[in-house]
Amino acid sequence: MHALLIGINDYSNLGVGGLCGSVADVCRVKEFLVNRLHVPEAHIRTLLDKEATQDGIISSVKGLADLDTINMGDPILIFYAGHGGTLPKPPELSWAVNNSNIECLVAHDARYNDAEETWVEGVVPDLFFASLLHRLAEVKGDNITVVLDCCHSGSGAR
């Protein structure tokens, strides 16, 4: 088994409220994987707070597809604990969604524009996240479990 564990309590933008249990949740999941399931720590990638930027999250999910230690069909766990949000569907894209909003994971470097009431950077949109998972499944198989411990996670993996 391999795992990518992401937990964000502290956000770089003061406009994004902090959380108090996300990092602790990641630590508990890691402890369970290592101590109960005997997953080698070398098979677990952990991103906490400032490591869990938009680029860090995206590159870490992409990186799972490139790991030689993951064979086709090996179980992969992706666990995210932090803020989730919504943002308007990009008008230039023909994303198939039922309404005018999409959902997103809110990374450590996220910035919210109060005047426009939307996220303007530092987020991972649900359809983009789904495309990362699709690529991972093509390369490593579909034995992938995704746990999104956040608000607005209903379409998180599409």
Automatic annotation (TrEMBL):
UniProt superkingdom: Eukaryota
Name assigned to this protein: Uncharacterized protein
Species: Vararia minispora EC-137
